[in-house]
Each structure stands twice: as C-alpha cells, then as structure tokens.
Fold this sequence. Notes:
This protein is α/β, with parallel strands linked by helices. The protein is 30% helix and 12% strand. It has helices at residues 6-16, 33-41, 60-71, 97-106, 127-131, 156-159, and strands at 24-27, 45-48, 82-85, 110-114, 139-141. α1 packs parallel to α2. It is globular.
Amino acid sequence: MAVKSGTDALRFSLIAAGVGPGDEVITVPNTFIATTEAISQSGATPVFVDIDEKTYNMDPNKLGDFLKSRYAPCSMRSANRPKAILPVHLYGQPADMDAITEIANRYDLIVIEDACQAHGASTIPRRREMEEGRIHGLAAGFSFYPGRTLVPAGREEQSQPTMRPSHRKS
C-alpha cells in the first residue's frame, strides 16, 4: 500500500497490527523522530533498547536481555507489556532480523520494520530474498523522501543523464 510518507507507513502498519493505547513498542533511540512519532500516533508508548556499537542497529542481545527482565516474575516493570518491536534499518544496513524475529516469536511480539533508510540493503546470504521484496516482520515502512539513503544503480555511464535535442532541424 502506498501512503504519503514513511511515518504514515509505520503508523498505519502499527494500527493495522492492533497496536494502540496502553501498548508499548520497542525501538532504538538513534533514529529519526518519525519512528517514535508513528508509535505515539498509534496511541502506544515507545520503549528503547540500545544498539550494537558496530552496526548502529538494534542489538538482539540487548533486546533479549530487556525482554527477560520485563517478563521476569519479580520484575518492577510497568503494568504494560510490549506488544511490538520496531527495528530500524539504518544507513542502508539491515538490522539482524533473523535474531530479532526469533526473539519476537519467543515472546509473541509483532515485528514492524522501519526500512525508510534501507533501500536496496541486504546481507549476502539473504540477497535473493531481499531482491524479491521479502520482509521479516509483519510489515515494513519505506520512504522515498529525497534525503534518504538512495544511490543510482548500474554502471557509471548508465547512471548519467543523457541530453537529447528537443527540436528538429529543417
């Protein structure tokens, strides 16, 4: 489905997945405000898990530790339990979705991907899956805003504009 912005794509995906007031959505703190704005606009509360210092994406180990502490019987957690995970694929590099979806399945959480800065991103083992448009979560939000990580594809001479005369000589 096409919408006017990546923020709307994330917000509508969250709402369609049943995320709303009183729910918590786990994401990362180093993202554009639109990620947390979409969570807030759905009525949910953003909750942050730290990143992997090498990839700048959600750290699956820290996600797992966070969820273990939140679901521990004696934890001093809030009354709300997380309902979804919203990992951000940043700088054209995808988050470790295999590990994140495995954790999400263990805790029965929805995964919605913020792929607004991940056009064409892939890891070598999953290249074919990504080329076919496969996403790991329930949905993913993309953005074609000009400031995103977009680069021309193909050989250099193919990516250069060609000027053609628009008039005929008589």
